[in-house]
Write a structure and sequence with these properties.
By secondary structure, the protein is of the alpha+beta class. The protein has one domain: ADP-ribosylation fold (Alpha-Beta Barrel), CATH 3.20.170.20. It has 5 helices and 6 strands, in the order H-E-H-H-E-H-E-E-E-E-H. The strands form 2 sheets. It has a 3-stranded antiparallel sheet with strand order 1-3-6. A hairpin with a 5-residue loop joins strand 4 and strand 5. The longest helix is centred in the N-terminal third of the chain and has 13 residues. It is globular and about 40 Å long. The termini are far apart.
């Protein structure tokens, strides 16, 4: 390892590749936003509009996102998307806790969703991500 050199770009590319192998990313919306998206509106939350991209989470990041941003939100919807549907508009960027999060710099439509789950509030007051969603396999 003494002679092995990595630059930040090569490490970032490797990590992005490893994360993209799963291909599944999740968007969390309030039920009213999901219903509007199914009627033709873009999938976006106020934070997405403010930041200029659509925030997503991996399966490993979903519950922490729910705990942090969706306390007390009843009827929240967890929506699965395939990373292959976003090509160059998907970027993996460092965010909370130094983790890479998927961000889409482009339009996201309900028709691109692979599956959705209505969530119930858990004891902490945040919605609980269904285990079925976190284990969802695009190949089935």
């Amino acid at each position: 390892m003494k002679n092995c050199k990595f630059n930040l770009d090569s490490v970032s590319i490797f990590l992005q590749y490893e994360m993209m192998k799963n291909r599944l990313i999740f968007k969390i919306l309030e039920n009213s936003s999901w219903e509007a998206a199914k009627e033709g509106a873009l999938i976006q939350a106020p934070v997405d509009i403010a930041d200029g991209y659509v925030h997503f989470s991996t399966a490993a990041q979903v519950q922490e996102t729910l705990d942090k941003w969706f306390q007390g939100v009843e009827g929240a919807v967890l929506i699965a998307f395939d990373t292959d549907d976003f090509s160059e508009t998907l970027k993996w960027e460092v965010s909370r806790g130094g983790e890479l999060f998927p961000h889409v710099y482009g339009e996201v439509r309900a028709a691109q969703a692979k599956k959705s789950w209505q969530m119930e509030l858990g004891p902490s007051g945040a919605p609980l991500a269904p285990q079925e969603a976190l284990e969802y396999d695009l190949s089935t």
